[in-house]
Write a structure and sequence with these properties.
Blueprint (H helix, E strand, L loop, with lengths): L6 H4 L8 H15 L8 H17 L2 H10 L17 H13 L3 H14 L4 H13 L3 H14 L4 H13 L3 H14 L4 H13 L3 H17 L3 H24 L2
């Protein structure tokens, strides 16, 4: 990681850059350093992690304001402070770094420290929830989602992860309800449409599955998430073929 952790420098924008400027620069750099474009290139992979972390912070107005308020160059004595004196945001950023490195257990420890300092740190709960999901800790995910929704019941991502963990625990109908709540809060939540579509497919509700998967494919394409788009198209074809076979059986 860049030693200065200057997210503006990493994204090659000024500190007065607009949200659109930040997004445009991130997309340009992401295309340039994406691991798919640079196979077997550890340096490019590391740069990709850096710009992803920087964009995660600067693309969110609240996180950006906190970063602008609290960021200090590494020459500051604060950079050498004892871990016990670090603030909630410091632990949060350490957690993000570890998550990007797929050190999810270490990330969880840092997110937990951030939450101990600030019990309403919604972003830390969300990131801990994601890390717990990666490790298969569905009870932990649901606990975090419950806490997040107490802080802000309109948090779409919390409803989404409720759906993912409920489904993994075998509660498919309950998962559909959670995905529906995520979509209610964010109508452009492509992943929620996709996974709800897959559950509908399991229930042999082909019409609902097709509708969700078509919406997911459209949103993934608009969001330029081409790998997810291709996976969704395959799922769409599978449902379409199943529906066609059923219609032929009814002839």
């Amino acid at each position: 990681m860049a030693k200065t952790q200057d997210y503006y420098q990493i994204l090659q924008v000024s500190k007065n850059a607009s949200s659109e400027d930040i997004k445009a620069s991130f997309r340009r750099l992401a295309r340039q350093y994406h691991p798919d474009v640079n196979p077997n290139n550890p340096k490019a992979a590391e740069t990709f992690k850096e710009i992803t972390q920087a964009y995660e912070v600067l693309s969110d107005n609240n996180k950006r304001r906190r970063y602008d308020r609290n960021y200090q160059p590494p020459s500051s004595s604060r950079s050498k402070a004892d871990p016990q004196t670090l603030g909630a945001q410091d632990f949060y950023f350490k957690g993000i770094k570890q998550s990007l490195e797929k050190n999810y257990r270490g990330a969880i420890e840092n997110y937990t420290q951030a939450i101990k300092i600030n019990s309403d740190y919604l972003e830390a709960y969300l990131k801990r929830c994601e890390a717990r999901y990666k490790l298969g800790d569905d009870k932990g995910v649901l606990d975090d989602c419950s806490q997040i929704l107490k802080i802000n019941h309109k948090t779409a991502k919390a409803h989404y992860y409720q759906g993912r963990s409920r489904y993994r625990l075998g509660y498919a109908q309950s998962a559909i309800e959670a995905y529906t709540q995520a979509i209610k809060q964010d109508t452009s939540y492509a992943q929620a449409y996709y996974f709800r579509g897959l559950v509908y497919q399991e229930f042999k509700k082909d019409t609902e599955a097709l509708e969700d998967l078509k919406l997911a494919a459209k949103l993934f394409r608009e969001q330029k998430n081409l790998s997810a788009y291709r996976v969704t198209v395959k799922a769409l074809n599978k449902v379409d073929n199943h529906k066609l076979k059923l219609s032929k059986l009814g002839e």
